[in-house]
Amino acid sequence: MGILRLFSNTMLRIGTFRSYQIVLLACAALAVVAFYYFGSERQNFSSTTKRIKETQASHNANRNDADLSVDTGPPPEADQVRMRRTHKQAELARHYHALMMFTKLDRSKGLQAKFQVAMRSLVEHGRFLEEETLLLHFVSDDASRQLGEKMLPGLLLDASFKYDVLFHDVAALTEKLYPIVEAMQKHFSAGSGAYYSDSIFFLSVAMHRIMPSELTRIVQLDLDLKYQANIRDLFQEFDGFPPDAVIGIVREMQPVYRHTFWQYRKENPRSGVGDPPPEGQPGFNSGVMLLDLEAMRVSALYNQLLEPERVARLADKYHFRGHLGDQDFFTMIGMEHPELFQPLACGWNRQLCTWWREHGYADIFQLYYHCDGPVYIYHGNCNTPIPDD
């Protein structure tokens, strides 16, 4: 009996040891899976949106202010956990979103050169706080995306700030945009009809309807820009928006809309439509835009202006027929409802094109073209060379 009892106890200990080993191995396997699943999360718009959504409750009124205080004392263990969570939430809440159209880049060496100038100057002058991240959104086709994936690592190599690069499929966005902007395209597109492909040129007009609600602010930028200042400072302009404003934008610096509104101006010579600043309404240039997507979502007036009958009514009133997409739309509704727009200093979009000076407006051109104050961003529109540093 003693031998049997000894054998039984030995087997019991062995069985317990094996169960303990199995538990340890199972825990180790789960840890490895968790590490690779969460540690190698793919950076795309959906995953970023998910993280932002998880921390939306921690957002405060001023999302761009950072806590620069430092506590050098070692806190208790429980406080360390709370601090790590708070830091993670603050980090996710401080994302700066910038979007650029990135289509047909593979077909144009000139556009590729402009893109390199833009990105290198953005990196050179860009400065963000340690807990902040710049998210670069590129709306692209497959070929341009492949090219961008090759170019961007080198262009962003010297960045002193944290960033993520996110590509959006132009076809998918166009499919979402088309039902919203189809009716307005005939008024503001170069073609004679509302071409499906033209919809993407109205992305800024309806971005608030097709992007996730967690994305509340974004800056849309042309590729033919050269940055002379920290792009973070541009985002601070959101804080100066008056209550009714939904878009921050710079005035047009040529008499484009003096020409476009010629019939309305003839019928209403005292209106100021198309006149130069500061008293006139010269229209807008869409090379640099601050889109307060949350304000766009809640503005009843702005969303009413997207309705086809309202667009048609205003186009008839102003005898408007344009070809510059979103820029034309914003200019037209800005004549009627300037309160929707926050005018930015001309230095944030210092347009360099002088085409209209040589096409009938030399005598008044400088009234539109002048820009007092520092230049933060050069805009080489209509293929105008940008000055060297």
From TrEMBL:
Species of provenance: Denticeps clupeoides
Keywords: Membrane, Transmembrane, Transmembrane helix
Gene symbol of the encoding locus: XXYLT1
Domain of life: Eukaryota
UniProt-annotated stretches for the region Disordered: 55-76
GO cellular component: endoplasmic reticulum membrane
Pfam families: Glyco_transf_8
GO biological process, one term: protein O-linked glycosylation via N-acetyl-galactosamine
Keyword Transmembrane helix in record: yes
Compositionally biased residues, Basic and acidic residues: 55-66
Name of protein: Xyloside xylosyltransferase 1
Bilayer-crossing regions: 20-39
GO molecular function: xylosyl alpha-1,3-xylosyltransferase activity
